[in-house]
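JOB MANIFEST
job_type = single_chain_structure
chain_count = 1
residues = 132
[input]
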Amino acid sequence: MATAGTHPTSTKHRRAREERERAHKSATEHLQASAEIDKARQKATADVRRSLDSALERMRDVNGGLRQRAEAEPLSDTTRSSMRVIGLSARWATTAVRAQRTPEARKELSDEIRKQKTEPGPPAPKGDGAKG
């Protein structure tokens, strides 16, 4: 009910106008917040790209340096010999496994593998002489 001096429609209009203003203010704030988020997203994307580019450049530098060292330093006789032994051991192991064609040979090999799994392994190698 209207009080003296106020008209009911003017109160409704005032309330409607206030509601529109609040809605407009809310929409404006939402748009401003959205714009700020977009700016932050763009800045973060640019920062990440710069970091990635920098990391890639460092990796290329390291890779180039390693390649130059590898080309400049020939393998030592010990390294070549170790590589040959590893290759021969792998071929020998493959040949040994392929040779196990009979069921008896396979059972014997299986028993040996189980036995090795249950036995303690060789002692751990000693350190480089440092006490710790």
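[summary]
Residues 114 and 120 are 12 Å apart (CA to CA).
Residues 75-117 form one domain.
exit_status = 0
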